[in-house]
Amino acid sequence: MIVTVTANPSVDRTIGLPHALARGEVQRAVAVTAQPGGKGINVARVVHGAGLGTVAVLPAGAADPLLTQLAAVGLPHRAVSIDEPVRTNVTLAEPDGTTTKINEPGAELSAGDLARLTDLVAEAAADARWVALCGSLPPGVPADWYAEVTARLHAGGRRVAVDTSGPPLLAIAQARPDLLKPNAFELAELVGGDGARLEAAAAEGDLEPVRGAAADLAERTGGAVLTTLGAAGALLTTPEGTWFATAPAVRVRSTVGAGDSSLAGYLIARHRGAPPEERLRTAVAYGSAAAALPGTTPPLPAHLDPAGAHIRRLS
């Protein structure tokens, strides 16, 4: 069982444009989709599609359209009922794969809502191997909530993966999660430096800046660090060493959710007992497959090209 937690879920509305976005002009959509979203939900959908047990934990009212969507796709989930509607996030997708996201802040959680959500996470995780804490935190939730939940889950013997950014990311590093999944910009938030330079260096084949930064972070947390680098691939740093994987070549349709799929791929491979280099290969294969699909459509095993991810050990 892999449990995911999405404190700030969304309905993801993707609008396909016939050409590049032109600010200030009227444009007609060529395709519109609405899917259940939020990082943890995206992870759970990929895990579910791979045939593994999963439960997505989230806050949403009983009549919220998001729960209707989750039921429609058959995703097991448990929700804490709240009064406000779940937010809608809008993605504008251009033909060349460029995406522009407009995210609402989300429904505010009261102290009571948050306490019930925290208890539900612990309850759902009773039989889990891993719990993935994913995404932004909504209004009303303190930045150290992930750290608090991680400590509680660790006390119960659960392993914890975290994918977030900003203040919650800075707070969680002190809680020593078992896996962190930053991108280059989030890695720079944690260890200092310039995320754009880290990503550009990796794209040009210079992996040392990213390797060094990820190694510093792994030493601080004592866990693994999966650093996604967009089209350049990904880096996995564990106590056993560091590996780099190039990404399979794909026609990019939407990068939204690609990082979530990479995290899911890693957890799927980890659950199946794969060694570090194969966990990285699976993570990159899933992330690339997601980028080739529209909106936040979760990739299935049939979409993967594991052989297209080339692995090499860096240390």
Automatic annotation (TrEMBL):
Listed InterPro entries: 1-PFruKinase, Carboh/pur_kinase_PfkB_CS, PfkB_dom, Ribokinase-like, Tagatose/fructose_Pkinase
Record's keyword annotation contains Transferase: yes
The UniProt record lists the keyword Plastid: no
GO molecular function, one term: 1-phosphofructokinase activity
Keywords from the named record: ATP-binding, Kinase, Nucleotide-binding, Transferase
Catalytic activity, EC: 2.7.1.56
Residues of the Carbohydrate kinase PfkB domain: 10-302
Reaction it catalyzes: beta-D-fructose 1-phosphate + ATP = beta-D-fructose 1,6-bisphosphate + ADP + H(+)
Domain of life: Bacteria
Record-linked PANTHER family: 1-PHOSPHOFRUCTOKINASE, 1-PHOSPHOFRUCTOKINASE-RELATED
Function: Catalyzes the ATP-dependent phosphorylation of fructose-l-phosphate to fructose-l,6-bisphosphate.
Family in the record: Belongs to the carbohydrate kinase PfkB family.
UniProt-recorded name of the protein: 1-phosphofructokinase
Gene that specifies this protein: pfkB
